[in-house]
Amino acid sequence: MRGNEVLYKVAFVSLGCDKNLVDSENMLGLLAQEGFCLSSEEHKADVLVVNTCCFIEDAKKESIEQILEVARFKQEGECKALIVTGCMAQRYKDEILTEMPEVDAVVGTTSYDKIASIANKILSEKGVKVSDFEHIDKYHIENLPRVLTTAGYFAYIKIAEGCDNKCTYCIIPQLRGRFRSRKQSQILEEISNLASNGVTEVILIAQDTTKYGYDLNSSHNLVTLIREISKTEQIEWIRIMYCYPENITDELIDEMASNDKVCKYLDMPIQHSSNNILKRMARKSRNDELRATISKLRNVMPDIALRTSLIVGFPNETEEDFNNLCAFVEDVKFDRLGVFTYSQEEGTVAAEFDNQIDEDIKFKRKEVIMNLQQDISYELMQQKVGKTMKVLIEGRIPDEGVYIGRTYQDAPDVDSQVFVHSEEELLSGDYIEAKITSANEYDLVGEFYKYSR
To answer: Keywords, A to Z (predicted)?
Structure first.
C-alpha cells in the first residue's frame, strides 16, 4: 500500500487470552508499517479484523456475536474488508466463509504475519475471498512490529507458542500446534525495544511458560531467561503466568526468591485436586505433588501470591471428587482463584467421556467454590491492612485525589486493585509505596507514602 495516496483505516476486535492479544498487537504493527491508519472507531474503519477465541463454548459464542456485530458495518459503515483471525478461524475456517458471507478472509494462527498483504488484496480485488493457513507447527516469526494496546508501562511477552500437553479437555494443541520456544536473544531484543519506549513491567506468557527452552538445543530455560531480562535496567517487575506445577523446579523457585525484579507471584493453573479427575484430565501432577509444590513455594517465599484456575463439572466428577476440591481450596487458601465450568469441546478426548455432568450442577459447584474463595480472599486481604506495599499506579478517579493501582501480587485485569489516596499528583506508570488502610474481599485502600523508584 506504500505509495498509495489512499489511507485506509483499520480497527481491531481482540478476544480471548493475553496470548491472543499479543498476536493482535503484532498484526496492528504490521498493518501500521504498511501505511494503514489505526482506528478505534469500528464504524469508520475500512478494514475490520476480529481476532477470535474458541477455547470454550462461551468464547465461541462471543466470537460469533462479535463477527456478526461488526459485519453490519459493511452495510451501515465504511467497512470494505472483514477479516477473521485467531483460534476460531483456525478451527472453523470452512464454516466461517460458507455461513458468514460478510467475511472476506479467514487467517490461521500461524499466518497472521501476512495480514497486511491479505487486507490489500481484498481492498484491491473486489469480491475476492481469502483463506490463508500455514503448517500448525510453524515457528514464531521474529522481529515483527508491534503496537501496544495495553497501557504503555506494561507488556505481555509471548515466550513460546503451542503446547505438547495432552489435557483431555483442551483443544489448544490442535489450533496452536506443538510447543515451540522463541529464541532467547529475540525475546530479549523485544523487551529491550519495549523498555526503551517506557515499558517497566513484562509479563511472561505461553501455554506453559515453565517449559520454556525444553525444545531448544541450548542451555536456555525460564531461569536463564529471567536472569537476562533482569539485566534490562528499565524493567522493574517481571511477572510469570501460566506455570504448570510439574515444571516448577527448585532452580526457578530459588531464582524467584533471590531476584528482586521477579514479582513474588505465580499463576499456576491446577484445574482440580482429586486424583481421579486429574487422571481423567491427563494432568501430570497429583494431589500430594500439588501440595508439595505449593508448600515449597511458600516456605521459600512466605510473601508469594499464588493464583490458580479450576474446572468444575468435568465428566464423572462425583460429589466425593468435588468435596475433595472444596477441601483443597479451603486448606491451601490461594490468593487469587478463577473457576470455569467444564465445556464439552468437540474434537477433545473428554468430549467422548461418559457421565457428562448437567449444566445446573456445574454452575452450582462453581458458585460453591466462588463463595469459599470469597471468604478466603477477605481473610487474606485483611492481613494486608497496616502494611506498606509497592504499587504500580494505573489511573486516577476523575475529580478525586484517588488513584488506582496494582501491587506485585496482582496481574492486570484479572486480579485486585489498590485505591490510593494521595495529595501528591501521581502519574500512570509511577511506582510508589502505599500504606494499606482498609480492605474488602477483592480490593485494597491505601495512602501514598513515598515514591518507590
So the answer is: Ribonucleoprotein, Ribosomal protein
pLDDT score of 74: 86
Question: DSSP of 325-380, one letter per residue?
Answer: HHHHHHHH--SEEEEEE----TTSSGGG-SSPPPHHHHHHHHHHHHHHHHHHHHHH
Give every residue of the chain whose pLDDT is below 70, as ranges: 1-6, 140-141, 453
Question: Domain 9-132, what fold?
Answer: Rossmann fold (3.40.50)
Q: Measured between alpha carbons, how far is 391 from 230 in angstroms, rounded to an integer? A: 19
188 and 238 in contact (C-beta within 8 Å)?
no
The residues pairing with 309 across neighbouring beta strands, listed in sequence order, are: 338
207 touches 172 (CB < 8 A):
yes
Residues of the chain within CATH 3.80.30.20 domain(s) are: 154-382
* Sole residue written with cell 478476544: 15
pTM: 0.94
Per DSSP bridges, beta strands 81-86 and 47-52 are: parallel
The fold of the 154-382 domain, in CATH, is: pyruvate-formate lyase- activating enzyme (3.80.30)
What is the pLDDT, as a whole number, of residue 4?
A: 47
Domain at 388-451: CATH code: 2.40.50.140
Handedness of CA 305, 311, 312, 316 (dihedral sign): negative
- List where CATH 2.40.50.140 sits in the chain: 388-451
Amino acid at 361: I
Residues of the chain with CATH 3.40.50.12160: 9-132
Q: What is the pLDDT of residue 3?
A: 44
